[in-house]
Amino acid sequence: MRFSNSNSKNSKRLTSQLYFVQCKFLNFSPPFCLNSASSVSQQKSSEIEEESVSDNESPLSDEIFRASPKLGFYKLGDSTFSSIVENCANSCDFRWIEKIFYRMKREGRVFREKNFIVVFRAYGKAQLPEEAVMLFDRMVDEFGCRRTVRSFNSVLNVICRAGQFCRALEFYSYAVGSKNIMPNVLTFNLVIKAMCKLRLVDRAIELFREMTVRKCTPDAFSYCTLMDGLCKEDRIEEAVSLLDEMQIDGSFPSTVAFNVLINALCRKGDMARAAKMVDNMYFKGCVPNDVTYNTLIHGLCLKGKLDKAISLLYQMVSNRCQPNDVTYGTIINGLVKQQRAVDGIHLLVSMEERGHRPNEYVYSALLSGLFKQGRSEEAKRLWKEMIEKGCKPNNVVYSALIDGLCGDGKPEDAKEILSAMINAGLAPNAFTYSSLMKGYFRIGRAPEALLVWKEMESKNCIRNEVCYTVLIHGLCEDGRLKEAMMVWRHMLGRGYKPDTIAYSSLIHGFCKAGLIEQGLNVFNEMICLEVESQPDVITYNILFNGLCNNNRISRAIDLLNFMLDRGCDPDICTCNIFLKTVAEKLCPPQDGREFLDELLVRLCNRRRGLAASKIVQLMLLKCLPPKATTWEKVLQGCCKHKKMIAGIEDCWRNLLR
């Protein structure tokens, strides 16, 4: 008797129902009763609840196969076994599969390779690659089933999907070397993918060249996989040449292949060349898809070219390519980073009009952006609209709102939102509590900030470096240096490494208390550490201010020279500190023009044009113009020689007309 299996054209539900009928007829409980995750078991739970199968019970009734006549090479019921194996594999019930396999072996049934392939796929679904390898080894010796490249590729794919790429290469060498498996195109594609994931791109190229020797013609997937591996190693030129080779070999380039190259060029910031690659796509008859447009839009947003990104969005719509959530989310996030949150709101409205529902990350970006731009009322309105539209906020959105309210000087309102967050079943993280502590410190309520610190412990929230940094900074600002030092030692004792902000906060605390030498000691300790904790311009400005206020001007000048030698550029705050010092501390007082002029020359000599331009703006603003010789250095540093000469010649021509 034959029953419908899962490969028939019937619907999945009908197949499952027939399977239950089949199991009833064969007098054994279906394996779905052991797997509560199956949708069929939920539908039939009332029917199979009372049925149970012990480990010693035979999975199949003997009566159905008693005196089964042979039908050539196969016996009556072989297809029934195959159908049951497939259904067990679909439910990932490997215990029943083993029982059925041993029953088939005992009765001398014929094992077909497809019986094992469906089980291999089940092992892949269950993330059990080693079990798939073991079953592959048992196929011949234990079950007498001949292995081919189909079953080999199935196991290899399981290993790759599990992310065990080293194991995949080992299995490939083992099977091809000792099991006489002849690899095909799919085999090579999987192995090339594994090599590229392991960043063994040169070995992947060698294997790619070996394909033709083994009489396997690379397909589009082979080229795309290798091109992607080359691009991730920043070998874009080789990937482009591979695209040309692909066309010469007769493999028509696909949109996927172009997307790989466009993505690499956008990540590198070469948007002009990425645009040319899109033109090449059209020339080759490939139409850009949503991935192409999203990649270009993301690249433009990274370069800060938001207006071009929005234009590309409209072009995408005009070309009948529908923008998706990723498209809108990328542009909105880019607008927020450029402090254009209001434009982001307008785009959000357009997104909703086109039937796209913004996710929590879009809302969190907009909320943060509106608060940072001082538009707290609009941020609160957006929050209410979000709730009214049925979008449930997650940790990210709650944290963004709490941080915004604290930045707006309303930590009590933020505390209410925190309570609502906890009542909604969401656990605040260290960043959420850090925002609340920062909010209380900002309005001078240090005791409440310390209560938040203690609440973290009662809520079993793990404190991280950010929490310690916020607490140290707040205590130092509040003049509680001893308590800050206790927290500092506690932080080090827990194995956390202070970052630049933590070090700068502690140095600020010492300088504020008039303990300049202790601050310099912390600074010296800081410069001996990793790159991540090196002083920035804020750190130096804290020390400049402390040294100058204590009339240690020569030491401040030495520190400024040290700062320049280490590649850290001064900012406007640095200049204002020294301008105030030379005007108030020197006798006779100076206007600071000579000091700024010398600083400007030193920056120009080091080819630090951006910092030099900012100082020129400050000097002009304070009516302290640089010397003529200094202007010449500034122009030479900021302009390319040929363009500068051409500009001067244009000026002369205009004057002589």
UniProtKB/TrEMBL annotation:
Cell division is among the record's keywords: no
Keywords from the named record: Repeat
Swiss-Prot/TrEMBL PPR repeat ranges: 184-218, 219-253, 254-288, 289-323, 324-358, 359-393, 394-428, 429-463, 464-498, 499-533, 536-570
One Pfam family it belongs to: PPR
Keyword Cytoplasm listed: no
InterPro entries: PPR-containing_protein, PPR_rpt, TPR-like_helical_dom_sf
Protein's recorded name: Pentatricopeptide repeat-containing protein
Species for this entry: Nepenthes gracilis
Homology family: Belongs to the PPR family. P subfamily.
